[in-house]
Amino acid sequence: MKLIRKLLITKYQNRPFTAVEEDGKIVAFSVSEEEESILGNIYVARVQNIVKNIQAAFLTFADGKTGYYSLEENKNPIFTNPKQTDTICIGDCLIVQVEREHVKTKPPTMTSHINLTGKYVVLTVGNSHFGISSKIMDTDWKNQCRAYFQKYCSQTYGFILRTNAYSVNLEIIEKELQILVASYQKICDDGIHRIGCSCLYQNPPDFINQVKNIWQDGLKAIVTDQKEYYDLLFHYLSEEQAEDIGKLFFYQDTWPLFKCYNIERQLERALSERVWLDCGAYLIIQPTEALTVVDVNTGKYIGKRNTADTFLKINLEAAKELVVQLRLRNLSGIILVDFINMEDTQNRILLAELEKLIQRDAVKTVLHGMTALGLVEITRKKIRKPLHEQLQKSCAVCHGTGRVKI
């Protein structure tokens, strides 16, 4: 049975706010930054300094901002004025994309491996291969796509078909692919005539990217109560995703959208350290600088006389809630989960179930198994800041320790 999805777009703390609802339950939140995001933007940047001992260069872009550029990972820089070699020098102007925004004291990361993302296709500069999302399992359909689209790959760029492309008419995908190629060529042509530190391409607002990136399977409605967002979304869908324009609705009820979907209460739960399970057990979720730690506790659950069955029941329910919380809180990087200790046979049942649950996540998530200490290791790709960083900041008194001095 297919999930029924809705994308809700409103304002929270005067910032664009999106929530994804699946079968009546909120499963993901996103809050835009107070300052405009530069993630995904493409610039002409000037090489300011080269630090050979760390194999990196520092580039100036966008009104004097500085970005980090790995020489080791960017073997083929895109010069605005072509050179005979790929060796960069101080003063060179490069076309680069912001791959990662600044994190605390670390500057933004820049790359020459430019990605242009559509609803169905990603154009990948520096990778001439044709790839297909690993979540698509239909071998015959994938072979058909490879035969159909291989002609579009070049020495400069390749393509990746996204999960949303599955079962879509190949001519529709081809049309988007051609638009992405034209966009990339325009960026390169414009770069030749631009001065250093100018912007060649600006990523759309986050709430529009959400419309493009959300899993389309089961998507029934895109709902907003903000007239300015509705107008922007209508224009975007008319130009880029005309097939989805019938899903856009402007919410005008007197009862606020936030209250209608009980978003505020669910936000509080998503920011809480403790998450109660239906069985009476609970999770403790603690993000740290290096990783996120999750602890499973029996709590109020008494269970059956058979202790092994009791622990397995708790762990299976905890695994289901864990996957929900990873999406809801947008947790990423290394995640260590301390489930209740069980026998090896039951651990295998738990890991098999967790693997199935993780496959439902649109963000690349990998289950690495169980360590010698009995901790389950998971990694999840970082797309944007976790929810707690979007909505909270460290306490000025305890400086983030969460402790009061006695």
Report what the structure shows.
Helix content is 28%, strand content 29%. It is an alpha+beta fold. A six-stranded mixed sheet has the order 16-17-18-19-21-20, with helices on one face. A hairpin with a 5-residue loop joins strand 16 and strand 17 (282-287). The longest helix is centred in the middle third of the chain and has 24 residues, at 170-193. The mean pLDDT is 87.
Summarize the model shown:
This protein has 406 residues and is of the alpha+beta class.
Q: Which key phrases capture this entry?
A:
406 residues; alpha+beta; 6-stranded mixed sheet; 5-stranded mixed sheet; 9 helices; 28% helix; 29% strand; globular
Q: Provide the residue-averaged pLDDT.
A: 87
Content of β-strand: 25-35%
Order of helices and strands: EEEEEEEEEEEHEHEHEHEHHEEEHEHEEH
Give the N-terminus to C-terminus distance in angstroms: 55 Å
Cα-atom Rg, whole angstroms?
23 Å
Task: Point out poorly predicted stretches.
Answer: none
- Count of runs of 4 or more consecutive helical residues: 9
Percentage of residues in helical conformation:
25-40%
Number of strands: 21
- Class based on secondary structure composition and strand pairing: alpha+beta
Strands in their spatial order, largest beta sheet: 16-17-18-19-21-20
Largest sheet: 6 strands, mixed
- Tertiary shape: globular
